[in-house]
Specification:
By secondary structure, this protein is an alpha/beta fold. 41% of the residues lie in helices and 15% in strands. It has 9 helices and 9 strands. Helix 7 packs across helix 8.
Length: 245
């Protein structure tokens, strides 16, 4: 389950963690099963979570969905928003994880150069995992301008966090289905924000370095990409801007 090279993978993971003074793992306090699985993974990597500054963020659980698709979607949205607000306030690069992460050990072990690449490249947001199919290249980190279907493992710079926070707060004030973004799943909100801000520099790990375990979801059944028609004008505009046409 943990891969074949936990020691070598752990060296690379630890070096990456040192680049992020602020790290949070978003998790419902009631999901002790998920937290224990996360703890076991870091132990297998040889990483002391407390020593590296990895902390759990107790995810918010609401009694009602409000204008969001589900109760869980509202809690996830608000939880990521609060973590990003802390990132912006502390003015520190942040690593944000969710409690269903699964480190792909062999891939980490094969990338000892990854910490240097992260430090040397220009980016606003970096996805270590993303859920949807993104073509792999010989570049371990590659620019990405299309949708991203998950928020289980990403990093963000503080100025980028400030911009995302402003957008998420505006989404909460708009009605559901608003063409520029209303209450929705947070992964969809990130994608709509990026589509409307073509200067925003997003990198993805190719292939994914952190995938997800399959387990009972706390977010409900409706996915944000069920409304993907709202994203198409922004995605097409972004592609045209990137290609210069």
């Amino acid at each position: 389950m943990m891969g074949q090279n936990p020691h070598d993978a752990g060296i690379t993971v630890a070096a990456v963690l040192r680049q992020f003074p602020f790290m949070r793992i978003i998790s419902l306090k009631s999901r002790a099963d998920r937290r224990e699985r996360v703890n076991r993974q870091f132990a297998a990597l040889g990483i002391d979570m407390a020593q590296h500054g990895l902390r759990y963020f107790d995810a918010i659980r609401f009694d009602g969905a409000g204008d969001f698709p589900t109760i869980g979607a509202r809690g996830c949205f608000e939880s990521h928003l609060l973590v990003l607000e802390d990132c912006a306030r502390l003015n520190q690069p942040a690593l944000v994880l969710e409690d269903d992460i699964k480190f792909e050990m062999d891939r980490w072990a094969a990338l000892p150069s990854l910490p240097g690449l992260i430090a040397s490249q220009s980016w606003d947001m970096l996805y270590f995992g993303y859920g949807n199919a993104i073509p792999g290249t010989e570049q371990p980190l590659r620019p990405w301008y299309g949708p991203v279907m998950t928020t289980h493992a990403y990093a963000v710079k503080p100025e980028a966090a400030r911009r995302i926070v402003s957008y998420l707060q505006a989404c909460k004030r708009r009605p559901p289905g608003d063409p520029v973004g209303g209450p929705m799943h947070v992964d969809g909100a990130f994608t709509m924000f990026r589509a409307q801000n073509p200067d925003f520099r997003t990198l993805v790990a190719a292939p994914q370095l952190i995938t997800q375990f399959s387990s009972r979801s706390d977010l409900g059944t409706e996915k944000w990409w069920d409304r993907s028609r709202l994203l198409q004008p922004f995605i097409e505009r972004l592609r045209r801007a990137r290609s210069g046409v």
